[in-house]
């Protein structure tokens, strides 16, 4: 688990540990001062039988036992108050430490997930990712770190108190340690397997809860139209119930022994008192030792309870530690952008450097024998594709559904790395090192434009803080995308109008145009447009593509065309079929050639 901490946190933990030691010493001192005090209360003349008290009494110039007792009582009070203040302070240090680790772990998870290659997202459920960042990191702080630190702090306290009891009466101390320590150990050993298993159940149920909510709201339109609310509730309910039961069980298993063991302790003290009384010995002689044990028990039992509870919670949350460890360390997602987060605990993950120097693109983009297989797929999705796209040209990737158009575009976008073959930009091979520089040339318009719940300007200059938005560039991009007039004339606050979550206040076509403006904001030299299959009607789609072609200027336009009618003006069409390049050429040539393309074009 140490691997989950940054070096700075490890140093900071030494301070927390020192506070735990201080807390243990003071708790023991509180118990230690009680002994002489009770002894003096029951027999004030005993001051003179004890060399230390006698020296103190004379050294401080006391002439009355009562005032000496008042002094001792006051010292006892101060020690108890200071000990409680230090305990509270230590708890505050521990809590603060745990939550600052939580904040850093969650930032590191977010930065780490984002820094992963696109391919990693294909196999990861986004609800699970969100849950790990927000909830499991919290469970790590609350259910692992805090209990672990409490176990440590109260373990130290318990050890010190037990040490003190040994000094007072070794035999009795041994009995107390064996009885209470043994009782807690026995309970823990009995239920540790159950804790591990319900901890695992909690984790799984939590993922299912998140998925059900995520999917229900992610497709709320379909849910409402199809009337499937019940289905999502049915999916959510059992998971929520398993989650709640696991949480309740773990809390119950953490608390229950306390009551049984407190009862046992009370029974033993009462039994001992009755035994002394019955055996005819005066209670007075046994009172100091008995009261030391009662006070020690008052401190020792909560310490043992906390120690036990810490172990129990740790066990319950073993799956959380494993998952976070797996994601942060074993899968190495702590690399790259998130490394700095471990050294600058207060900093937020750095945004990827999109302003990286652009890879020069003056001549051609070439794909040479490019193949690609998705992870865990049986068949390759692209097989030996070789195409050349000259700068400033307008090309289309087309083919039937599942032919490999999106995969090929993702390869060009640098999102997927070819399993075989090479991509060359002006003869320079694309590598993981220069990929970001290549991407700095590209503006991408996906089929589904995801709009954030912010202003139109914020959505065009996507992912930039308000103060960094270049309003001139926003308007220029909007004009090219033919959405400026609508924004300026129809929207109540122009570019400052809020678009609503996912752009619910805009039509599909308007969202698409904002997506195009977004791609144009950084003035890219290459635009990749994934033609929308549903958001726009044929005519609007063709107009957008034609307009993009007209305002292309010095840009290269690559369109993934689902409808052939929209790509009649392009210079070159690449026709894919089952991952292979089936045909290539200008639209008319391919149509006249009577290829499969022809059939598709006429269908
Ligand atoms: N994440 C994935 N894992 C495994 N196989 C995938 C994955 N994504 C796509 N594929 C497969 O790769 C092939 C090409 O898919 P791709 O999405 O590139 O086709 P497409 O031509 O863009 O289709 P469409 O026009 O329907 O969008 C398909 O057979 C598809 O099943």
TrEMBL record:
Domain called ABC transporter: residue spans: 365-603
Parts of the chain that traverse the membrane: 12-38, 68-94, 151-168, 174-195, 259-277
Keyword ATP-binding: yes
Subcellular location as annotated: Cell membrane
Superkingdom, taxonomy of origin: Bacteria
ABC transmembrane type-1 domain: residues covered: 14-307
Entry annotated with the keyword Transmembrane helix: yes
Chief place where the protein resides: membrane
Topology term for the membrane: Multi-pass membrane protein
Keywords: ATP-binding, Membrane, Nucleotide-binding, Transmembrane, Transmembrane helix
Protein name: ABC transporter
Source organism: Salinisphaera dokdonensis CL-ES53
Lineage: Bacteria, Pseudomonadati, Pseudomonadota, Gammaproteobacteria, Salinisphaerales
């Amino acid at each position: 688990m140490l691997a989950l901490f940054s070096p700075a946190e490890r140093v900071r933990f030494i301070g927390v540990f020192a506070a735990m030691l201080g807390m243990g010493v003071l708790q023991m001192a509180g118990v230690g001062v009680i002994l002489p005090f009770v002894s003096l209360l029951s027999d004030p003349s005993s001051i003179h039988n004890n060399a230390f008290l006698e020296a103190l009494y004379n050294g401080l110039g006391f002439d009355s036992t009562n005032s000496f007792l008042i002094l001792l009582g006051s010292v006892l009070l101060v020690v108890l108050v200071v000990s409680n203040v230090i305990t509270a302070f230590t708890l505050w240090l521990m809590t603060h430490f745990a939550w600052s680790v939580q904040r850093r772990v969650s930032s590191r998870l977010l930065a780490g997930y984002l820094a992963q290659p696109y391919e990693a997202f294909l196999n990861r459920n986004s609800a699970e990712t969100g849950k790990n960042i927000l909830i499991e990191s919290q469970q790590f702080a609350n259910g692992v770190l805090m209990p672990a630190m409490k176990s440590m702090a109260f373990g130290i306290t318990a050890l010190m108190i037990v040490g003190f009891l040994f000094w007072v009466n070794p035999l009795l101390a041994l009995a107390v340690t064996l009885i209470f320590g043994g009782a807690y150990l026995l309970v823990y050993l009995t239920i540790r397997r159950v804790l591990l298993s319900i901890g695992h159940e909690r984790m799984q149920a939590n993922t299912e809860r998140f998925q059900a909510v995520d999917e229900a709201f992610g497709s709320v339109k379909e849910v409402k139209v199809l009337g499937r609310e019940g289905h999502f509730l049915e999916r959510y309910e059992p998971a929520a119930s398993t989650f709640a039961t696991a949480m309740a069980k773990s809390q119950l298993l953490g608390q229950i022994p306390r009551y049984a063991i407190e009862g046992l302790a009370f029974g033993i003290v009462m039994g001992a008192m009755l035994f002394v009384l019955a055996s005819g010995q005066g209670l007075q002689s046994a009172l100091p030792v008995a009261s030391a044990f009662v006070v020690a028990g008052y401190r020792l039992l909560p310490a043992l309870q906390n120690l036990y509870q810490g172990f129990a919670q740790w066990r319950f949350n073993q799956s959380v530690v494993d998952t976070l460890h797996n994601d942060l360390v074993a899968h190495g997602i702590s690399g790259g952008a998130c490394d700095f987060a471990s050294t600058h605990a207060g900093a937020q993950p750095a945004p990827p450097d999109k302003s990286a120097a652009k890879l020069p693109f003056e001549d051609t983009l070439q794909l040479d024998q490019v193949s690609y297989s998705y992870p865990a797929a049986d068949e390759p999705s692209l097989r030996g594709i070789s195409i050349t796209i000259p700068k400033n040209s307008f090309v289309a990737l087309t083919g039937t559904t599942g032919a490999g158009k999106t995969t090929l575009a993702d390869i060009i976008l640098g999102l997927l790395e070819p399993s075989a073959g090479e991509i060359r930009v002006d003869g320079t091979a694309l590598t993981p090192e220069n990929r970001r520089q290549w991407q700095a040339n590209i503006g991408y318009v996906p089929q589904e434009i995801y709009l954030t719940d912010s202003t139109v300007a914020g959505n065009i200059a996507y992912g930039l803080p308000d103060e960094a938005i270049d309003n001139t560039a926003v308007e220029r991009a909007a004009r090219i995308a033919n959405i400026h007039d609508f924004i300026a004339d129809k929207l109540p606050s122009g570019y400052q109008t809020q678009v609503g979550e996912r752009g619910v206040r805009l039509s599909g076509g308007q969202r698409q145009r904002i997506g195009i403006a977004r791609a144009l904001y950084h003035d890219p030299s290459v635009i990749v447009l994934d033609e929308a299959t549903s958001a726009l009607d044929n005519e609007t789609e063709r107009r957008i593509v034609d307009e993009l072609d007209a305002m292309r200027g010095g840009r290269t336009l690559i369109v993934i065309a689902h409808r052939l009618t929209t790509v009649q003006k392009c210079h070159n069409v690449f026709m894919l079929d089952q991952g292979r390049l089936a045909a290539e050429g200008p639209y008319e040539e391919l149509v006249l050639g009577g290829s499969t393309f022809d059939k598709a074009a006429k269908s």
